[in-house]
Amino acid sequence: MIDIRYGMRVQCGERTELSIRFLAAAVDAGIPLDLTLRPRTVRCVIEHQHADEEHQAVLAELPLADTAEVWVSWLSGHEPHTVERRTYCPVSAGPDRPCELYAQHPDGHSWQLIERHVTA
Predict the structure, then answer these.
(1) What is the largest CA-CA distance in the chain?
(2) pLDDT band, residue 4 (cuts 50/70/90)
(3) What does the alpha-carbon distance between residue 18 and residue 14 come to, in Å, rounded to a whole number?
(4) Which of the four, 8, 27, 36, 97, has the lowest number of CB atoms within 10 Å?
(5) What are the strands, taking DSSP E only, across 1-120?
(6) What CA–CA distances, in Å, run from 58 to 24, 49, 78?
(7) For residue 110, how far is the Cα from the chain centroid?
(8) How many other C-beta atoms lie within 10 A of the C-beta of residue 89?
(9) Paired strand residues for 98
(10) What pLDDT is recorded for position 120?
């Protein structure tokens, strides 16, 4: 989707709630998370109207020496079904503008996308 006001592509913005049960299962699987995480809502950061139906969001950043983040995946209207470490996208728009998404993500890179603002 192209936002006519800015001529830029737009992030999806779909949100989902993370249950304590989901977070606890992630910790049990070896994902380093803080179970007191607040808020427990994540927002899809890949391009709006993405090709696949799965939404994607960063759940946690890993230590600076690491080359990955923890991401969650979910389908619209459902609780997340996947939590996994994903390496960073290797593409950048210059030395100070790396893509903040994961390697082999669908659609546009993070610097090509603007946040979608949804009003009620």
Answers:
(1) 45
(2) very low
(3) 13
(4) 36
(5) 2-3, 8-10, 15-17, 41-43, 55-61, 68-74, 82-87, 113-114
(6) 17, 18, 17
(7) 10
(8) 16
(9) 92
(10) 43
